Amino acid sequence: MKILYIGAAIIAALFILKIILQIVILKKAKKNVGVKLSDILPDFRGKDFFVYLYSPSCTPCIRLTPHIKNLISKGVRGKMVDVTKNMEVARKLGIMATPSVVIVKDGYIKDILMGLIKPEDIEKQLNQ
């Protein structure tokens, strides 16, 4: 019976640690909200668009990437960044988890979304 309690305590501690880590990661990325994107990444210029950061081996990314490609094909302005090939972009933006979407309005970072996001939420953010 003690082993069962110890196991449950370990699982609860790991769950709490995971939540704390997610909060720290999101807080680090959100530091760039309000910053002019071209000041961080000179090659990324434009008014209203999104930057999608993903990894080909990330399961949520594999599910989200076709939807992102569909958004772009419909005319929604977006850039896709494979962090396994271009980690510098993620590092400069403070992104430590994929998938992540950086929403840019009037050239400034408006918001950073992390995790499995609905493509409609990206469009809503850009249209606000």
From TrEMBL:
Q: Which UniProt keywords apply?
A: Membrane, Oxidoreductase, Transmembrane, Transmembrane helix
- Pinpoint the Thioredoxin domain residues: 47-127
One term of GO molecular function: thioredoxin-disulfide reductase (NADPH) activity
Does this entry carry the keyword Oxidoreductase?
Answer: yes
Cited InterPro entries: Thioredoxin-like_sf, Thioredoxin_domain
Q: What class of enzyme is it?
A: oxidoreductase
Task: List the transmembrane segments.
Answer: 6-26
Q: Which SUPFAM superfamilies match?
A: Thioredoxin-like
Cite the CDD domains for this sequence: TRX_family (cd02947)
Question: What's its EC?
Answer: 1.8.1.9
Q: What is this protein called?
A: Thioredoxin-disulfide reductase
